[in-house]
Amino acid sequence: MEYNIHTLKNGLRVVLVPMSGTKTATVMVMTGTGSRYEDKGENGLAHFLEHMFFKGTKKRPNAKAISEELDGVGSVYNAFTAKERTAYYAKVSSQFLDTALDVISDIFLNSMLPEKEIQKERGAVIQEIDMYEDMPMRTVDNVFDELMFGKEHPLGRTILGPKENIRKFKRKDFAAYLKRNYTPLNTIVSVAGSFDEEKVLENIRGRFESVKHGNPPNFIPFSPAQDAPRIAIKEKKTDQTNFILGVPAYPYLHKDEFALAVLSTILGSGMSSRLFLEVREKRGLAYSIHAWIDRYPDTGYFAVQAGVEHGKLEKAVETILAELRKIKRVKVSAAELKKAKSFIKGNMTLALETSDEIANHAASTMINIGRVRPLEEILAGIDAVSAADVQRVAKDIFKTNSLNLAIIGPHLHRKELQSLLRA
């Protein structure tokens, strides 16, 4: 895959990824800001602002004008806000790339943030919060993040923010956040698919080069400080207990990042992973269970999530802890190591087949590590992992004093669970 990177005069970076054999193209504009860059009173503003970008520009005065133009070319379009990045994108048949680029750049650069639309959109955002509150599987990660990072640190707060913040935001708050956080130096324009590179680059230059220079925002660093296992319980009447069990792990570009990825895969990726087989297939404790890793420039974590019958929470946690201890004690076999590596490489190769995923990968890695990370580099890193590496990383991160258990369900017996984590 060829990634052609261009830096405009104001510092904004453009990544062009030509793809032969495809009839689609994706334009994505991503900026390196999100809920991590909010203070407590701003929490929820980054996500709310993302909504407001679709409410009208001078050229397209309302949401209907924006959506009709993109719908008119059969586009798949959306936006997302994460803790450290926010993106706006449209995927189209390649013949309509000019339209996608025109609309996405217009909303990114020229949104008017009309006061009357802010008033209306408050209701939509609050309904979005309520929707997820009715989905414990989707909100237990909020309980976990607060437990892991603390409610006073931006990483410990939710992306959507509290309702009281949503109700009080004014237009000046959006404008101030936009000026402070959306700067050329932390913005990537990524285009992948079938297109004329020279023409697209000139098009982007004409739209984005006039954006005023500004220093990118800083974030508050996080340093894990934990000397005992921790539990957080959000008591809620539910039909199922949802929980996440996790430990602090590694940031981006850590020397053991690939070994951690293989470890996570062995434990909880796919229907032949250890946790799936032990928790679901062997004991029937959960319908869904999986493990994953999350990373930031300064920290990261490994986590396991499952949903279980209320009375089987302790047994499920006990089973997971037993698997974590086992992988520390006994090296994985050559066959299991090979399978995990093939799983990761196959999944990544499949994911990076389409123009939208390639545009996202290019923009995200530019934001996260300052360069596009080619697939070949990642695959080589995975290939180099040994069974000894997996065991060493397991011993490093799976420590009793580092355990964090977040729960949503009708549970009050914290002491019993605390003793389970110490066992």
Structure description:
- There is one protein chain.
- This protein has helices at 45-52, 63-71, 97-110, 115-133, 136-149, 163-168, 171-181, 197-208, 257-268, 274-282, 313-329, 334-351, 355-369, 375-383, 387-397, 414-422, and strands at residues 4-7, 13-18, 24-31, 76-81, 86-93, 187-193, 230-235, 241-248, 286-295, 300-308, 404-409.
- By secondary structure, it is α+β, with helices and mostly antiparallel strands.
- It has 2 domains: 4-208, 2-Layer Sandwich (Cytochrome Bc1 Complex, Chain A, domain 1); 230-422, Cytochrome Bc1 Complex, Chain A, domain 1 (2-Layer Sandwich), CATH 3.30.830.
- The strands form 2 sheets. It has a 6-stranded mixed β-sheet with strand order 1-2-6-3-5-4, sandwiched between helices. Strands 7-11-8-10-9 form a 5-stranded mixed β-sheet, sandwiched between helices.
- Helix 3 packs parallel to helix 8 (197-208), helix 9 (257-268) packs across helix 15 and helix 12 runs antiparallel to helix 14 (375-383).
- The longest helix has 19 residues, at 115-133.
- The model has no long low-confidence stretch (mean pLDDT 96).
* Secondary-structure class: alpha+beta
Helix content: 40-55%
Counted beta strands: 11
Separation of the first and last Cα atoms: 49 Å
Supply the CATH superfamily name of the largest domain: Metalloenzyme, LuxS/M16 peptidase-like
- Outline the low-pLDDT stretches: none
CATH-level-2 architecture of the largest domain: 2-Layer Sandwich
